Amino acid sequence: MTSESDIKIIGRKTDEKLKDNNDALEKTAQILLDEGLVKDSYIEAIKEREKAFPTALEFENYSIAIPHTDPYHVNSEAMVVNILEKSVKFEQMATEGLYTDVDIIVMLAIKNKEKQVPYLKALIETFQDKEKVNTLLESENNDIIEERFKNYLKESI
To answer: Could you tell me which residue ranges the PTS EIIA type-2 domain spans (predicted)?
Structure first.
């Protein structure tokens, strides 16, 4: 597996109230688009894939979503860690019709499909650690979120 430094990590804290999960997906994907890391087609592709294959995971005191889509829509590998001020309902992974209030979106833009599973495993390992998640949720700004998340990811890869 390649090192975490091969992927650009972007930390964000979204203070605005998001209407729904589509709004959350659009605004998070827009971060990648603004950086030139994904193609214009990425935003619609991520919303369509989330409808077909929900990505929310519920943990003890919080929930996360890990939306991702086909490599075709990606220019450069990246991850956005978006801490939501107000949680947003997402359908849970592998549970049709069950929803959870998502607090953190980790949006993946992966070009090499072989990296996807190791990254997903590292993310799940990171998010199983309540202390790490609480530290992320309490982070005050984008730089702190980014730095903490890079360190957590490094430990898990």
So the answer is: 1-152
